Amino acid sequence: MKSLAILCQKGGVGKTTLVVNIAKIYSKNDIKTLIIDLDPQGNTSTYLDFDKNNENILTSQDLLLGKTEKEIGFLEENLGIIPSNETILKFNNEKIVGGSILQQKLKSFVFSNFDIVIIDTPPTMSSLVQEAICASDFYLIPTKPEFLAIEGVSQAMKFAKETISRQISISPIFLGVVLNQVDITRSSYIDFEKELEYLLADKLINSKISSSAEVADSPFYLKTVDEFDEHSKSKKEFYKLAKELLERMALNEKIIEQSYN
User: Fold this and answer.
1) Under CATH, what is the fold of the domain 2-248?
2) Strand pairing report for 116-120 and 33-37
3) Where are the chain's structural domains?
4) Mind giving me the DSSP string for 128-163?
5) Model confidence pLDDT, tens digit, residues 20-29
6) What is the pLDDT of residues 161-187, one digit of tens each?
7) Residues 35-61: pLDDT tens digits?
8) Under a CB-based contact definition with an 8 Å cutoff, are residues 171 and 165 in contact?
9) How far apart are CA 7 and CA 122, in angstroms?
10) Picking from 3-12, 40-49, 70-79, which range would have the lowest pLDDT averaged per residue?
């Protein structure tokens, strides 16, 4: 099992949209996938039309309390979810002492059947994000192609490095920065992309997600981009990104069979 945290302290960069769409693509291609939502807003559950207040289902709050007795919620055979709600806020400012609880719990046999765990995080640099970093093998930072976003990426990278340096026995790998909500018609886009290429080199993810009606509207209808319009450009972009992330995580044996060309 491999784990991937999606993080950025700026809101509106599309973290949850990435988590849901990538997870759905993996699960549709026989990659057993688990989503862990650490955002108190619980938007991942809302997007997937899952009851985040079901007391019979294991929640992220339960995990942070060290409890794993409840059942994992399943949206379909290969897609599980551990939802979150506002009660997780009490963990937001707690310091990690003696190691990450989430990291310890993910080693449990309860999660051994999953191929990949994707962790959605709140748009902050907080203890919840630190938990996600500590529990992950890899982390990814999404950003919008805007000049001021460069500072946000830099802050997120610095926060991750500081978190890693303060904890024992963790070594998550920075997969890179993925550009989301891209509008190539903007005059500043090419300059922005060149700036990021200079700063990040091979840590700038090659696959990019365009700004489109499909991406913006699909959550309103509780559908992934694939379900909303199976012939859209956005679907192809998400499939390319999903494949590239598998390659960067060295999970090449996991095959995405559906065409993304």
Assistant:
1) Rossmann fold (3.40.50)
2) parallel
3) 2-248
4) HHHHHHHT-SEEEEEE-S-TTHHHHHHHHHHHHHHH
5) 999 999 999 9
6) 998 888 877 889 999 999 887 777 677
7) 999 998 888 988 898 988 888 999 999
8) no
9) 8
10) 3-12
